[in-house]
Amino acid sequence: MQTHDARLKALREELARRGLDGFVVPISDEHLSEYVGAYAQRLAWLTGFGGSAGTVAVLKDGAAIFVDGRYTLQVRDQVDGRLYEYKSVPQDSLAAWLAENVPAGAKVGFDPWLHTRSWADAVAARLDKAGAALVPVDGNPVDAVWDDRPAPSAAPAFVQSDALAGRSSAEKRAAIADWLRAEACDAVVIAALDSVAWVLNVRGADVERTPVVLSFLIVHADGSADWFVAPGKVPAEVVQALGSEVRVRDRAEFTAALAGLAGKRVAADPARSVAAIFAALEEAGAAIAPLADPAVLPKAVKTPAEQDGTRAAHLRDGVAVSRFLHWLDMHAPTATVDEISAANQLESFRKASGQLVDLSFDTISGSGPNGAIVHYRVSEETNRLLQPGSVYLVDSGGQYPDGTTDITRTVWIGPGEPDEEVKDRFTRVLKGHIALAVQTFPAGTTGSQLDVLARQHLWAAGVDYAHGTGHGVGSFLSVHEGPQRIAKPRGGQAGTEQELLAGMILSNEPGYYKTGAYGIRIENLVLVVPWAIPGAEGEWLGFETLTLAPIDRRLVDTALLTPDEIAWWNAYHAEVLARIGPQLSGADRAWLEVACRPL
């Protein structure tokens, strides 16, 4: 097996052969997916970095890896600092670093199937000022030196039934056709994998943790569609379910099909479609309408069937998590449980339901200081025992046919009692979680307007957390879904944020992280629902909590809680006991009764 040093050397030799002075390697695929298949894990192969977001710039005499605050610690553990400079975004700019480090006349390559056009335009403009050029490559040079690169998944697609989806594919395509006509467009290119899956009511197993099919979709103004997918991946029952209005075509025909849109007005989402798609349309002479993917917003607003499905999935998931928390209480204090065995045990409880399709992301199983790494991924090298007298953070979720789950619990590993600081920080996180959970708000409110509710008690103590408070969640789709979010405004432009709509699912997950010591996060998923307030003017909304599993009372400083917060705790745990309890028996049921007793 090549070392990462040898891989970097081989890439530089390939770049020199192509007359390139540098190359940019993102974690991305042709669909700009958050999680990518093994075939597209170019950055991981090159550097050893295992995070889900990052970019590397490779030059003849230097290289740098750019990651955000989630991965500040992880990147130093996994990537050789002798080979790559560590850069933190948004403070450090990849374009600025390139401009400062390339000589005049240099050519820096990029793969147009892995970047947006806006990214390419911005980097090209910065390099142009430095007398250098950003140039698209034909064929990725990393692939040329990656001898054992996995092939894309050959897993078959399968149908997501109309009963679970709540709307047929024909209805969804008809709505998109109406939108196209209103926008005076002839067709729309849909490249995001979860959007393709949602429009067609299909699912797949091409990307770990996200049940999607590697494919592209073109929907036309008459409601028909061309689906570009590798041959052999679409069984007869899927073809039958889609009907004659969806033409199944070879994925290899996609670029030619874009050329065939010459003279048409074609919509494409600049944020969800790679630069190569826009280049192909422009070369063909199509008129491009840079419009948001028409599936994104309706996908985020769950149908009544999807809402019922996610409630059922969370009930099932809550049984598994509650059994795991009982198991953890029994075994972790003996210092025989490590991060990997705990994650495996949790997965086994989920599998016991008989309905788990996959995890919704790699379980974050962090003991002590590893819990302070926000997006920690345990490995054999970093695996730690859950030590008695420490804090353990476990963030996990499942993909079920009727819903996607995501839950974080922070647990005290006994015996003994947590110290005052740990209890203070945990309770402040809890207070923020409760403040958000109970808030009602007028229609038109954005998530950025609510974010401070979850931070206020931490801010009062002079501390904060460096991630968003809530992300959207799909329905047996991506665990991280837009456009809804609860976070600080992007660039201070609150007006650009998506308003929260009834039917949207989001996470509620404030946290606190003390580097080198411990991490705390409390996460439930919530559903935006209409809220009746006597005498209210206009339309009001609130949150229905979906997640059902006990929160560790040992970490709570009740002296910091108000009577209303204690009432929320008691009501939530009474519901957990009422809903989860009947599905447990014996010692599991007895443990739950103790864990859910009132404060």
UniProtKB/TrEMBL annotation:
<dbReference type="InterPro" id="IPR032416">
    <property type="entry name" value="Peptidase_M24_C"/>
</dbReference>
<dbReference type="Pfam" id="PF16189">
    <property type="entry name" value="Creatinase_N_2"/>
</dbReference>
<keyword id="KW-0645">Protease</keyword>
<dbReference type="Pfam" id="PF01321">
    <property type="entry name" value="Creatinase_N"/>
</dbReference>
<feature type="domain" description="Peptidase M24 C-terminal">
    <location>
        <begin position="539"/>
        <end position="599"/>
    </location>
</feature>
<dbReference type="Pfam" id="PF16188">
    <property type="entry name" value="Peptidase_M24_C"/>
</dbReference>
<keyword id="KW-0479">Metal-binding</keyword>
<dbReference type="InterPro" id="IPR050422">
    <property type="entry name" value="X-Pro_aminopeptidase_P"/>
</dbReference>
<dbReference type="InterPro" id="IPR036005">
    <property type="entry name" value="Creatinase/aminopeptidase-like"/>
</dbReference>
<feature type="domain" description="Peptidase M24">
    <location>
        <begin position="310"/>
        <end position="528"/>
    </location>
</feature>
<keyword id="KW-0378">Hydrolase</keyword>
<comment type="similarity">
    <text>Belongs to the peptidase M24B family.</text>
</comment>
<dbReference type="InterPro" id="IPR000587">
    <property type="entry name" value="Creatinase_N"/>
</dbReference>
<dbReference type="GO" id="GO:0004177">
    <property type="term" value="F:aminopeptidase activity"/>
</dbReference>
<protein>
    <submittedName>
        <fullName>Aminopeptidase P family protein</fullName>
        <ecNumber>3.4.11.-</ecNumber>
    </submittedName>
</protein>
<feature type="domain" description="Creatinase N-terminal">
    <location>
        <begin position="7"/>
        <end position="139"/>
    </location>
</feature>
<dbReference type="Pfam" id="PF00557">
    <property type="entry name" value="Peptidase_M24"/>
</dbReference>
<dbReference type="InterPro" id="IPR000994">
    <property type="entry name" value="Pept_M24"/>
</dbReference>
<keyword id="KW-0031">Aminopeptidase</keyword>
<dbReference type="InterPro" id="IPR029149">
    <property type="entry name" value="Creatin/AminoP/Spt16_N"/>
</dbReference>
<dbReference type="InterPro" id="IPR033740">
    <property type="entry name" value="Pept_M24B"/>
</dbReference>
